[in-house]
Amino acid sequence: MNCEVCQLKELDVEHFEIREVLRFSCNQKGLWCQAVCNLMKLIAGILHTILFHRALGLVRPKDIDLELFEITYVQCGDVELERKIDEKIDQFLDRVEKHPNKKNQICLSFYEVKNKQPTWFTNKVERLYWEQWYINLNVAQHQKGHSGKSTSSKIVVDPEAEERTVRRAALEASLRDVLFQIIRFVNEKKDHIPPIPNLEGVSFPYEITISRFCIWNGNVQEDAPNRASYDAQLTSE
Amino acid sequence: MASSHGNTHSERAKMEQIITEFFAKSLHIILESRCPYVSSRNYSGEQVLSSLSPSSSSSSSSSFRPRDKWFNLALRDCPAALENIDFWRQSNLEPMIVDVILMQRPIDWDPLNFSPKTGFVSGKERHYYGSDNEEFGCEGKNERIIERWVLQYESKKNGGSTGSKKRSNCTSSHALYKKSILLLRSLYATVRLLPAYKLFRDLTSSAHIRMYNLAHRVSSFVEPFTRREEADMQRFVFTPVDTSCGRLCLSVLYRSSVVDMGLDPSTPISPQFIPEYVGSPMAEPLKRFPSGFVSQSSPSSSPFGRRHSWSYDLYRASPPSANPSPSPSPTYSDSHASLAKQRCRRLPPPSLPHHVPDETLVAYMKTPSYDEYWPSPVFSPSPSPSPPTYVPNSHISKALLRCESAPVSIPVTRLSSMPSLPNKQLMPPSPPMKATLLSAAENIAHVRPTSTADKLLSFSKDRPHQIPGARPSVNSSPSKSFSSRLSFQDDYDDGPFVVEDDEILDPSSRSGLFELPGHPNEPGGNLFVKRSQDAAVGALVRMLKKAPPLHQDLQGSTLQTPTNSIKDTTEISEEPRVQQSSASNSVSSGLGLVTSKTTANALEELHGYRKMKDSLLKLK
Fold this sequence. Notes:
- The complex is a heterodimer.
- Chain A is an alpha/beta fold.
- Chain A starts with a strand and ends in a 26-residue tail after the last strand.
- Chain A has helices at residues 18-21, 26-54, 79-98, 150-188, and strands spanning 4-7, 11-15, 62-66, 71-75, 102-114, 126-141, 206-211.
- The longest helix of chain A is centred in the C-terminal third of the chain and has 39 residues, at 150-188.
- In chain A, strands 1, 2, 5, 6 and 7 form a 5-stranded mixed β-sheet that branches.
- By secondary structure, chain B is α+β, with helices and mostly antiparallel strands.
- In chain B, strand 5 and strand 6 form a beta hairpin.
- Chain B is rod-shaped and about 140 Å long.
- In chain B, strands 2-4-1-3-6-5 form a 6-stranded antiparallel β-sheet.
- Chain A binds chain B through residues 49, 52-53, 56-63, 65, 70-75, 77-80, 176, 179-180, 182-183, 186-188, 190, 193, 195-196, 200-201, and chain B through 41, 44-45, 47-48, 51-54, 57-58, 60-61, 64, 68-69, 72-75, 178-179, 181-183, 185-186, 188-190, 192-193, 197-198, 201, 236, 238-239.
């Protein structure tokens, strides 16, 4: 069975360095919180959209509005799934804060469990991945030209507001493109999906991995790796 | 062989059922996110929060209805989808085309003069559906198709061996069902990413009045778009689901941007006054009169409250309501709540209580429930629904007096010894009602001469009256009506229920009033007043007759006072007996016997006094 790989369009998001946050004014801290929340919601929207299309068991869909982007995505309504996704997003944010200004990647993989019984050579359970989604995020550090004083922040924020609006509009358009990309991929590739287990919510086992490196050459890999970062290539740093 | 044929038939039946249900589910998904008032948007979220907890996740399947389990997608009921799907349940080979129509109100849309049109376009098979579309009508220039969903099942004319067909049928139903699930998942996500969903969300989430609305049209045949129209639209085609007998095709043509249509969903419509609101006393006066003034015993009907509203209307130009309610029930409170919001936005400044234009006066259409809290006619510039500013109650009392007490001559000061009667029982309901009707009709006719105003005028004219100062002129200006009311106010400056003495002494005024025909529902209204007056007069006469003569000597009077007290103690036994005997003797004789009884009693009293005088002298 082939493993279908989908490289989603890269998203440029901004992020503040955490150590700079302490010197921020209240307004800046609010912006930082907003940026963090927006990033979390963005990632969550993408992951939930993918999982909604793979939760082929009985679901009661739940609409989530991203007010900042005026986009509504759908969750499959599994509380456990929401918790797992939130945990992964927190790990991703920790990784981003430790390594700013880097391209980051989140990989969502669906697999089948094969060979549950241990064999002669291995005791591990083999996973056969049949689909992988790569969410590519270019997290840029927020460029600020002030020392964080409240007086100067007022002067700096206003001119940046328009720039922030432009970036936000561009990010919204990119996010919409990514979601449509997911829908098109789900529609085009259907034959590789294994039979639906008799489960509710997310029908297939999955895993979410976070990688600092990215498989970024613009092409879809033909031979899917066993692990998400098997053929990872270092980006230029 | 037979089993293979049976399996083939069963598989074909399954496939047909899957396709039929696919049509229904697709329509459901589309309409629930495009019909503003038939949405499961919040329902599904709430259900998830309440039902899908870690403890109940395993048992959540039991809470799903059988219809939800189709394609493993549980949705709330969508009546619009259920209404439209019957045709395709019978024949799933016909394409299903769902048009999402943006209906915009014209800029000069007037809710007062709008005439709703029917939703059935002649000729073709077009059915307009959508909540509250009657407001928008079917004006072509204000409609625009912003989405067109096309769903069809293209059957294949295939021939093949039975074996291969069987194998394909065995797997096709399962594969068809799985692929249908995936397609519906994509459809569910796509409808929320298209631009029309933003309009739908604004309509459902915001409480603002929008200048647009969404309607839908489900049909099997539509006119194709022109090239120009199609050039403005984008197409998204879902990957068809192939089966052995055909394939399911789903596509959508949508306008990429609805902002270019001049919509401003964030701008609420300016508040407009609805002069004829539900529950207006001017709406159906004929219906409201009996309930308001006949049922005086029921506090809920609040006749005084309603009279307040009538009197209130004297100060306000109150056009009749379009949707009258015959009873002061809380059912129309919602309309008044919305009116209250509009009212508070258009309240005039408090410095002009009597010179407010009629438009703003419309806002003060009152209801009995309203009157309970805000009985005073007031104004307030505050946007919040707060009670208006205070206007002296004298105006209201004057209005009440003018409306309700003018034809009644009741000497309040002389009725102090009378048995207490509720004032409203002394008030004739029908004459003041007519007076109120007249003045209200004057104002209504000026603001908006409608049939309701004519009804009021005709009703008042049918009952000729002689209420001073009331002139049933239809075209009277508000200034005139104001002046007439003010003149009535000047006549009664002493407060409520105070009537001038000349009215008491002038029988002609009373008689003139008594010439008023009784209210059709109150035939004894005037008679009751007459009897009460006569009773009062008779009681007064009797009291005067029974009163001790005023020409007694001072000594006698002074002696009387202590002796009366002593008499009360010592001769109580005698006087009652004497009085009783005298009473028994004089009952049948009438006034003459009363006179003789008085003389005899007087003589006996005289003897008693003499004895007491002698005793007192002896004591000294």
